[in-house]
């Protein structure tokens, strides 16, 4: 890992902890943003952690960009020695794979795709060495995922697959971004899955849709009354495949306020995970099954 | 007191100085694209500079005022009519109960700011009335202004006849010049492409909105060869998804640069070659599609000088209206 610092205009500093994605880079980035928040530096207005990088927005009338850069660099050593462990939660997210709505959308934007004659799932299955879309779907939901960034648009989680690197799914983004994506589409780009929180533009491949609302500006959804955004970095997600009938049932339950996402509190220790991924995942699943 | 919207124009939204503090969740600061124009309009009618006003793009709305009041319109040049009679731009004017404010054709710039004494008093979300349509926050129930809307207005006591001196009404030049501090993933493109970006004349593409402005007409960029890092995706313009600064310039696929603006997406997987400096962000809001644009390279000292120059323009406006 080699940390790189760059000014982003006169109001931002961008810190790339590593060029490539890893949970080690995520934890170091998270530690640096935590240390920065605790340092409570005058002039800092936004601290945005990302997958393997983060960004600071500041007021250059209060703190000079050069001074801001020096303060950030000084935090790097603190972050190196921070504990790579967090108390978090595992959440089950139901997914209706190969649904009609993302299918209609992906057909509409076919000329922007690498494989204009297939579907996003067929293409993803092929380039990852799976015989069928169904086998690929199974790989997508059979292990848990780690929320390594929230953003792009309101409350959208980026999810990193909790498996050995050689087993991780990788799919390129669309050649040119779409201007439309259905709300709550489960997408994929690079090594990340995501859930589009709102309808809008997007460049990730589309695999399915969840009936579970994850952003509610009106805060009428029962589990979003405290805050309109559901996900936060560090959350762990388990996708659960559902059919159309189950999709319709959950959608109605979200609307009438009776739906409660399945959630369990867990501890995630990166060193323990790196030492025994299957074992840690089994414990995570056990916690979720008990919820 | 209220504004009764008869015609909404093309896209008219309620904007203020936005909602900082939620970009880490993908909720952008938003607010007026041309902040200097918003501040000036509010000053003219005796409001706090950050009061909520209407931002109208390309075409003005038409509305009735329900009580005697004072208004001002700044930003792009668009003839103002009060019951059909012309009124000066960048100058506060009185409107009587029942009078109709409407607009002629835009002659310069892209966005006008309509401030009313007391400010628009719709419900604030996360500390701001700014319309962020993608996230359905602020505005009128999370959306742009529509015909039939009745926009509540707060208590105010504006004075008619105050004006911003002509020299302080900042406009884009021809071609418009946007100053850029290279950085972020600048090293990803070849030296020849770095030069070409600043040499070429670009044009604003039709895809230009509050989220970002796309440009076309310049040469596509060539990338420095590398093996793509794990997790980034296979296109050379891809990176492991990271944060995007406001004003940052991404070039998806290496072809058409996009400058992110007030309603920016907070992150994504495209590399960026740097960012437009804070002093020139307002100007972008006044660019129409098809206008020629040049990017000019600056260093940090020049960026901070430009920021100070802009601040002193604002101070001069404040002094002129004191």
UniProtKB/TrEMBL annotation, chain A:
InterPro entries: CT_C_D (IPR003833), Cyclophilin-like_dom_sf (IPR029000), PxpB (IPR010016)
SMART domains to which the protein is assigned, alphabetical: AHS1
UniProt keywords, alphabetically: ATP-binding, Hydrolase, Nucleotide-binding
Domain of life: Bacteria
Keyword presence, DNA-binding: no
Keyword Hydrolase tagged: yes
Molecular function GO labels: ATP binding; hydrolase activity
Occurrences of domain Carboxyltransferase (ranges): 3-224
One Pfam entry name: CT_C_D
Protein name stated in the entry: Allophanate hydrolase, subunit 1
UniProt organism field: Oceanicola granulosus (strain ATCC BAA-861 / DSM 15982 / KCTC 12143 / HTCC2516)
TrEMBL record, chain B:
Cited Pfam families: CT_A_B (PF02626)
Name used for this protein in its record: Urea amidolyase-related protein
NCBIfam families xref list: urea_amlyse_rel
Molecular function terms, GO-annotated: ATP binding; hydrolase activity; lyase activity
Residue ranges occupied by any Carboxyltransferase domain in the UniProt entry: 24-313
Entry annotated with the keyword ATP-binding: yes
Gene3D superfamilies per the UniProt record, alphabetical: Cyclophilin-like
InterPro entries, per the entry: CT_A_B, Cyclophilin-like_dom_sf, PxpC
Keywords: ATP-binding, Hydrolase, Lyase, Nucleotide-binding
């Amino acid at each position: 890992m080699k940390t790189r610092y760059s000014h982003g205009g006169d109001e931002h500093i961008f810190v790339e902890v590593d060029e490539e994605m890893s949970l080690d880079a995520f934890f170091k980035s998270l530690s640096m943003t935590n240390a920065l928040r605790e340092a409570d530096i005058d002039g800092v207005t936004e601290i945005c952690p990302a997958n393997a990088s983060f960004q600071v927005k500041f007021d250059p009338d209060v703190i000079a960009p050069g001074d801001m850069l020096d303060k950030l660099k000084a935090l790097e050593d603190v972050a190196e020695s921070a504990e790579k462990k967090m108390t978090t939660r595992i959440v089950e997210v139901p997914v209706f794979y190969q649904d009609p709505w993302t299918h209609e959308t992906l057909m509409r934007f076919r000329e922007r795709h690498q494989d204009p004659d297939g579907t996003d799932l067929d293409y993803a299955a092929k380039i990852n060495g799976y015989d069928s879309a169904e086998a690929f779907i199974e790989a997508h939901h059979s292990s848990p995922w780690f929320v390594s960034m929230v953003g792009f648009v309101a409350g959208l989680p980026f999810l990193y697959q909790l498996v050995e690197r050689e087993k991780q799914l990788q799919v390129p983004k669309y050649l040119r971004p779409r201007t439309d994506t259905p709300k709550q589409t489960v997408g994929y780009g690079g090594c990340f899955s995501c859930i589009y929180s709102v309808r809008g533009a997007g460049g990730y491949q589309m695999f399915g849709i969840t009936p579970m609302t994850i952003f509610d500006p009106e805060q009428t959804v029962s589990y979003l009354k405290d805050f309109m955004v559901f996900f936060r970095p560090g959350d762990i997600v388990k996708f659960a495949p559902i059919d159309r009938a189950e999709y319709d049932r959950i959608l109605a339950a979200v609307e009438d306020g009776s739906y409660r996402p399945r959630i369990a509190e867990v501890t995630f220790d990166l060193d323990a995970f790196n030492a025994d991924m299957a074992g840690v995942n089994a414990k995570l699943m056990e916690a979720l099954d008990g919820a | 007191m209220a504004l009764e919207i008869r015609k909404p124009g093309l896209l008219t939204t309620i904007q203020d100085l936005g909602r900082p503090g939620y970009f880490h969740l993908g909720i952008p600061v938003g607010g007026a694209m041309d902040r200097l124009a918003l501040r000036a309009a509010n000053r003219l009618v005796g409001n706090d500079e950050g009061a909520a006003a209407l931002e109208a793009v390309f075409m003005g709305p038409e509305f009735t005022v329900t009580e005697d009041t004072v208004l001002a319109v700044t930003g792009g040049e668009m003839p103002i009519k009060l019951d059909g009679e012309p009124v000066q731009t960048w100058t506060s004017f009185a409107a009587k109960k029942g009078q109709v404010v409407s607009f002629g054709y835009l002659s310069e710039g892209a966005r006008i700011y309509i401030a009313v004494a007391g400010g628009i008093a719709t419900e604030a979300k996360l500390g701001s009335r700014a319309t962020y349509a993608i996230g359905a926050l602020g505005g009128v129930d999370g959306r742009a202004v529509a015909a039939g809307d009745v926009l509540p207005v707060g208590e105010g006591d504006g004075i008619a006849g105050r004006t911003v001196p002509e020299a302080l009404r900042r406009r884009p030049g021809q071609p418009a010049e946007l100053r850029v501090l290279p950085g972020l993933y600048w090293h990803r493109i070849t030296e020849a492409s770095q030069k070409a970006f600043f040499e070429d004349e670009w044009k604003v593409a039709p895809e230009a909105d509050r989220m970002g402005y796309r440009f076309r007409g310049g040469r596509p960029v060539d990338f420095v060869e590398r093996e793509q890092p794990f997790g980034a995706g296979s296109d050379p313009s891809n990176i492991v998804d990271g944060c995007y600064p406001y004003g940052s310039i991404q070039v998806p696929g290496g072809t058409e640069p996009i400058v992110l603006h007030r309603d920016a997406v907070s992150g994504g997987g495209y590399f960026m070659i740097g960012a437009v400096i804070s002093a020139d962000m307002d100007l972008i809001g006044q660019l129409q599609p098809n206008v020629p644009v040049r990017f000019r390279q600056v260093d940090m000292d020049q960026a901070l000088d430009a920021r100070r120059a802009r601040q002193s323009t604002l101070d001069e406006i404040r002094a002129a209206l004191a």
